[in-house]
Amino acid sequence: MTHVRRTPDERFAALPGFPFEPRYVEVRADGVEPLRMHHLDEGPADGPVALLLHGQPTWSYLYRHVIPVLVAAGIRVVAPDNIGFGRSDKPTERTDYTLERHVAWTRGLVAALDLRDVTLVAQDWGGPIGLSVLAAEPDRFARVVAANTILHTADPALDGPLTWALHGTGDSRVVVEEALLDYLLHCVRAPELRAGDFVGAATAHPLAPEVLAAYDAPFPDAEHTAGLRQMTALLPLTRRDAGARIGRRTWRALESFDRPFVTCYSDSDPATRGWDRVFQERVPGARGRDHVTIAGAGHFLQEDAGAELGRVVAEVVRTT
């Protein structure tokens, strides 16, 4: 039996800049019981759809500055919380969380809402999850905006373009950036995790205390943080990792994806620097596009330049 926690609704009361109505669907993945997944659904019901996916340690609150820009452009915005995050259900066992299940849960949301002609906006783990959903359901997706995201496979070919190394070398060795290992080990070993600490450390501009507290809101105690801890541990550090296998399958789909694929990366995020070039070179739909670099923004560019990211997405939808 899957042991699940739901963050009390009062934890989400009166969050700054977040007036959106919560919505829920039931999603399934092999080996765990059905779970309730939260999402926002804003804008015209008959408008083109933008699916905004977050990563670790955030939730749909991350997109609060992006959503109004898209809605004003006539775009329907769907922004889910990954299982284990935000207002979504939170299994209490870390082993309940796998990349394959995260993909299945998000795919289940897309199917439950019957989303079509989708513009995928993927940041952080939203890339590996969302792009893998695209690989499984290519006919639902019309275009992609990749924003400070990755798709690691520990492939030796990744040696060179990336600032944060993670690639195989020879037949049986890998090179991994020390800072990446430090982050992974901290998430696994630290007696307490505070999402707001991570967000505050990875933006170019200081965030107000009440904003940082909003990122902590989904996690009132340790029983709610299993997904928060486990997601970083799902990063494929070797070529034999299950996540690397999923990533290779996703890459095979992307290497034949000829619909619009635009990168929108910030200039102050060493963790993902170079991935824009990888996508531009390997995805047919990225060739000849007007790719964007946002100045003065960190890893969480939605916080540093949310309106600008919204304008980039709206322009991609309008012109393609």
Automatic annotation (TrEMBL):
Instruction: Write out the entry's keywords from A to Z.
Output: Hydrolase
Which InterPro entries does the UniProt record give? Answer: AB_hydrolase_1, AB_hydrolase_fold, Epox_hydrolase-like, Haloalkane_dehalogenase
List the Pfam families: Abhydrolase_1
What GO molecular function annotation could you give as one example from this UniProt entry?
Answer: epoxide hydrolase activity
Top-rank taxon, per record = Bacteria
Spell out the protein name for this chain: Haloalkane dehalogenase
